[in-house]
Write a structure and sequence with these properties.
The complex is a heterodimer. Chain A is mostly helical. Helices cover 74% and strands 0% of the residues of chain A. Chain A folds into 2 domains: 49 residues; 226 residues, MetI-like fold (Orthogonal Bundle), CATH 1.10.3720.10. In chain A, α7 runs antiparallel to α8. Classes of the chains: A mainly alpha, B mainly alpha.
Chain lengths: 306, 299
């Protein structure tokens, strides 16, 4: 009956078995396409980045402090884009981590099932809103409101989009952390209560530490989302690559740069065209590294309480 | 004296301590609830803000007009048709491939090493930034396969983007099918594929459909990858073939929001309202399907 991957199955078997064999291989090829996608991404980025690095030294690219590839005398130091990305991501995480974790604790340990049934879908809606909408919100609502509080805040800045990005990522942090906390065995909770601990003590000193690797995995995935997020920053953070940690002035992130160049009409094969792949490669390596760590932590967590 | 007894005496140090701990606990609960409410308030503020800015521009004319240099005459017909065209084509590419891949991983290769590798790979792909898919699409579809900046190139790019989501959600739906369904079918002499096609898929269908709709609602909101492959921002016609240049609703919104004039920003808000309405319809359909499925399950 077993026809797994056996080429001999094509010969001297009934029609039914041949059909089974062909179908299995067709399905397998579809599954293999995802591997093809990964290889495609890496190949495309690697080829163009290699061509880019033939004209610009790796050292200048990674450690240069000026990014002016579209100027007459271009400079290719990617650091301003990296710090821009890091700045916005840091602000986003400062919003998403504490708020996401507290929401998760509330939903997992305190909330009435009826509240959960209402709140979870609302958080899903929040997670499903297109990022271009969040960009609009950051530029035309959050930044003007912040300008009331901080008069020096520029129209394009890192703070407004950072906060909005935090709100966008919050559902991800909250739902993954909540999953991790709900996965903690009941016995741990009951043991803590039996010793006279309050709900807060149980949540913060028993549940959160017990779910730690799951929660960390959620945080790391959230950082990766923040780094790769594009439209919010493209709309509201500006397009001025500058090496600064000041959240009130316009900056440019790696993702924004890719969008900025794509909006222009860049001829293929030019150095300018290749810069977006070099920046993309950096972005891919960064997020990919974080994703791998996150997946590894999740796996470890699953094993702990399997 | 016994500690347990003193603890119950009102006014004792232990009793005060317990009261204090209860207070802290209440405070913490209030803080956590406040954070949750703040999140919901942010969502409310977002929708209220967009509604306030854009509701005045919403009209049938706005939906059926082409873009214009004059904000008051500009509409979204080209972008809306572009979005729907791209979405249908994306579904046509991603759904069969994604469902097939999920069937393989869930029903055939769940224990083999290659299947395990493919699984890890899919989880990773699901977290790759969407703009990177744009770079892949630009290089692979637009340039190498010479599809140009067409509807087809856009749909192929988005198909790769949503494929991991389609696969993951389909697998979940397949996993929810009870083992007894498969065993009953095998017991009657059906082959593996006959079992999957005639028994497993029909049972899993509503679950699969729900996942597909959610995956596609991700596709309809995507902006960055389509900008990267070079979807144009100013088209004055609706796309009429898979080779047409196109734009989509989120790109049109981006284009309008990037202009300094408030009139165009009002257009952006109105465009967002249409986009959100579209998304809401899709999500409502998905939830309705999920509920119907659950009720049938319980019956």
């Amino acid at each position: 009956m077993n026809v797994h991957g056996d080429l001999g199955a094509l010969v001297g078997r009934s029609k039914v078995q041949r059909v089974e064999f062909v179908i299995e291989w067709a399905l397998f090829l579809c599954a293999l396409l995802s591997v093809g996608t990964t290889i495609g991404i890496i190949a495309v980025l690697a080829v163009e980045t290699a061509a880019f690095l033939r004209e610009v030294s790796v050292l200048e690219f990674l450690f240069g402090t000026e990014w002016t590839p579209l100027f007459a005398a271009p400079k290719f130091g990617v650091l301003p884009l990296v710090t821009g990305t890091a700045l916005v991501s840091l602000i986003a995480m400062a919003v998403a981590l504490p708020m996401g974790l507290l929401s998760a604790v509330y939903l997992s340990e305190y909330a009435d099932p009826r509240v959960r049934r209402f709140v979870k879908p609302v958080l899903e809606v929040l997670a499903g809103i297109p990022t271009v909408v969040y960009g609009y919100f950051a530029l035309l609502f959050v930044t003007p409101v912040l300008q009331e509080l901080i008069p020096d805040l520029a129209g394009f800045n890192a703070l407004g989009p950072g906060i909005v990005m935090g709100i966008m990522i919050l559902p991800l942090v909250s739902s993954l952390s909540e999953d991790a906390m709900r996965g903690v065995p009941r016995g741990l909770r009951e043991g803590s209560y039996a010793l006279g601990a309050t709900k807060m003590q149980t949540s913060l000193r028993v549940i959160v530490p017990a779910a730690f690797s799951g929660i960390t995995a959620a945080f790391i995935l959230a950082v990766s989302r923040a780094i790769g997020e594009t439209m919010i920053v493209a709309i509201a953070a500006g397009q001025q690559p500058r090496l600064t940690w000041d959240p009130t002035v316009p900056i440019e992130t790696m993702t924004t740069y890719i969008v900025q160049v794509s909006l222009g009409d860049t001829p293929q094969g030019t150095l300018e065209y290749r810069t977006i792949f070099a920046v993309g490669m950096l972005l891919f390596l960064g997020t990919f590294g974080l994703n791998v760590i996150s997946a590894w932590l999740r796996e470890r967590y699953r094993e702990e309480y399997a | 004296m016994n500690r347990a007894l003193t603890a119950s005496l009102p006014g004792s140090a232990d009793a005060r301590h317990i009261r204090w701990r209860r207070l802290v606990d209440r405070g913490f609960q209030a803080l956590a609830l406040a954070v949750l409410l703040a999140t919901l308030a942010a969502l409310a503020a977002l929708i209220a803000d967009v509604w306030r800015d854009g509701a005045g521009r919403l009209s049938w004319d706005f939906v059926t007009s082409f873009p214009s240099r004059r904000a008051s005459q500009a509409g979204i017909w080209h972008a809306l048709t572009g979005s729907i065209f791209v979405l249908v084509l994306t579904a046509a590419i991603a759904v069969p491939i994604g469902v097939a891949a999920a069937i393989y991983l869930e029903e055939y290769g769940s224990r083999s090493r290659s299947a395990r590798l493919i699984e890890i790979n899919i989880t990773n792909l699901a977290a790759v930034p969407s703009v990177i898919y744009g770079l892949l699409g630009l290089s692979l579809f637009v340039r190498m396969l010479a599809l140009g900046r067409s509807v087809l190139a856009g749909a192929a790019t988005l198909a790769l983007l949503v494929l991991p989501i389609v696969i993951l959600s389909t697998r979940e739906a397949l996993r929810a099918v009870p083992k007894s369904v498969r065993e009953g079918s095998y017991a009657l002499g059906a082959t593996k594929w006959q079992t999957i096609w005639h028994q497993v898929l029909p049972v899993a269908f509503p679950g699969i459909l729900t996942g597909l709709i959610l995956a596609l609602s991700r596709a309809i909101g995507e902006t960055a990858p389509l900008i990267t492959i070079g979807a144009v921002t100013f088209v004055t016609f609706a796309p009429d073939s898979i080779w047409s240049p196109f734009t989509v609703l989120p790109i049109q919104v981006f284009n309008w929001v990037s202009r300094p004039q408030p009139e165009f920003q009002a257009n952006a808000a109105a465009g967002i309202l249409v986009l959100l309405a579209l998304l809401l319809t899709m999500n409502a359909a998905a939830i309705w399907l999920r509920d119907r499925y659950r009720r049938k399950d319980a019956a």
